[in-house]
């Protein structure tokens, strides 16, 4: 018996990176997995299917859903289909996210809108669609993927930081609204995590980051997945409205 046996977890933006690591961790603990991601070409479609097969190989039911998490109506239809396919939605991880960095004076309206829509509006969309299901079930766990820059800000990332700060405030507000019916909501705030995106950073920038981290290393996607597992499971049954920073001590 795993920590999530018998539960269904929905993870957005999970074809790769942190989202995939969370889905794999949940599956290894017995959860059935529904995950979404944006598919714009054959390569992305192949990646979606490859991840589905990898998760399913862990012995659970897994289905992948292609779609735009920032689209409200599309999200409503997707969540309805997931509920029909699985019968319940016990855990929601709002992980879908993008970056379009730039200094405020050089940032376009399109850059701002794109990041806020994908990172923050998508979380609203999925919470809006999943909340009635969780309320009828009298329980559920919602986890918003925030960031340390949503806590402390970061020059050159005002759009990303604003979206992640919004994810934190959204989790706290939902925790207050839905808590009386047994639904918990929390946020995790990763720091410098070793992913394909951070691997492309220049070496001097990576070294500068490491100097700011007391543990002197970047985090792994599994570090994020482990904390999400705690928040998704009954081990955290009395934890709600919290923000857990996973950053090696970078921001104390």
UniProtKB/TrEMBL annotation:
NADP(+) binds at residues 13-16, 95, 160-164, 193. It comes from Segatella hominis. Pfam families: adh_short_C2. Pathway: Lipid metabolism; fatty acid biosynthesis. This is 3-oxoacyl-[acyl-carrier-protein] reductase. It comes from the Bacteria. InterPro entries: 3oxo_ACP_reduc, KR_dom, NAD(P)-bd_dom_sf, Sc_DH/Rdtase_CS, SDR_fam. Residues 7-191 form the Ketoreductase domain.
């Amino acid at each position: 018996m795993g920590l999530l046996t018998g539960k269904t977890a929905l993870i957005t933006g999970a074809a790769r990176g942190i989202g995939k690591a969370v889905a794999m961790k949940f599956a290894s603990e017995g959860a059935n997995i529904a995950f979404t991601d944006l598919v714009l070409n054959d390569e992305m479609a192949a990646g979606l299917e490859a991840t589905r097969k990898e998760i399913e190989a862990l012995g659970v039911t897994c289905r992948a859903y292609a779609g735009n998490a920032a689209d409200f109506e599309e999200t409503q239809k997707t969540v309805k289909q997931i509920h029909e396919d699985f019968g319940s939605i016990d855990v929601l991880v709002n992980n879908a996210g993008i970056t379009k960095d730039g200094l405020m004076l050089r940032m376009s309206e399109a850059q701002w809108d794109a990041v806020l829509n994908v990172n923050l509006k998508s979380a609203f969309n999925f919470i809006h669609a999943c909340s009635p299901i969780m309320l009828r079930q009298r329980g559920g766990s919602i986890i918003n993927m925030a960031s340390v820059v949503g806590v402390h800000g970061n020059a050159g990332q005002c759009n990303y930081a604003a979206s992640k700060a919004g994810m934190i405030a959204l989790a706290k507000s939902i925790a207050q609204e839905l808590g009386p019916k047994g639904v918990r909501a929390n946020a995790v705030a990763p720091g410098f995590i070793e992913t394909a995106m951070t691997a492309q950073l220049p070496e001097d920038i990576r070294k500068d980051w490491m100097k700011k981290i007391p543990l002197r290393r970047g985090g792994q996607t599994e570090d994020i997945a482990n904390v999400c597992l705690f928040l998704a499971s009954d081990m955290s049954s009395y934890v709600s409205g919290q923000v857990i920073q996973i950053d090696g001590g970078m921001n104390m």
